[in-house]
Q: What sequence folds into this?
């Protein structure tokens, strides 16, 4: 997704005023802010997002723990969900899952995927938008914005940097523009 398409997708849940829409806003913001895998997102428990410090703790492949910074908008979306929506979704006060379905159970990957499809359609996005699309967009936008490849590798939870390098070819147009602006003979 382009940056404007990602922004448009992230705005879709705000058109609704249901607890599920608040949850979806928080999930979309968190996914795009962190580059987490959808399985990591739906596995989050209460306490895994530190709103004050702006970090999310998740467990990736091989149960490897990592801390990922998140921006203020994502932290605020999670805070609003926790304060305004999660209490009405939680039927069991002991439930530890961060994101709940209307029955009060942990939202599944499939449940989130279905909601994402609805929001992509609502945003009139032509592309086939999947949860991995947001992870892909996160990596591409971070690298295009100048983030160091090793930092992006760490945030994505890739064991090998060659896995992260897949996203670098997508920024070739950005490199071309930078080259044309910078090289004395290209001006």
A:
């Amino acid at each position: 997704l382009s940056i404007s398409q990602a922004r448009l997708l992230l705005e879709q849940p705000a058109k609704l005023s249901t607890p599920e829409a608040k949850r979806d806003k928080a999930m979309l913001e968190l996914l795009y802010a962190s580059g987490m895998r959808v399985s990591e997102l739906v596995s989050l428990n209460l306490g895994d997002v530190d709103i004050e410090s702006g970090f999310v703790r998740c467990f990736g492949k091989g149960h490897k723990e990592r801390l990922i910074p998140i921006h203020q908008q994502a932290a605020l979306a999670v805070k609003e969900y926790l304060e305004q929506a999660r209490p009405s979704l939680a039927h069991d006060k002991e439930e530890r899952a961060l994101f709940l379905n209307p029955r009060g159970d942990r939202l599944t990957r499939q449940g989130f995927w279905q909601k994402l499809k609805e929001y992509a359609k609502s945003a009139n996005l032509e592309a086939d938008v999947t949860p991995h699309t947001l992870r892909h967009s996160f990596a591409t936008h971070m690298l295009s914005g100048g983030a160091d490849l090793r930092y992006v590798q760490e945030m994505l939870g890739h064991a090998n940097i060659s896995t992260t390098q897949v996203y670098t070819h997508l920024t070739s147009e950005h490199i071309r523009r930078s080259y044309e602006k910078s090289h004395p003979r290209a001006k």
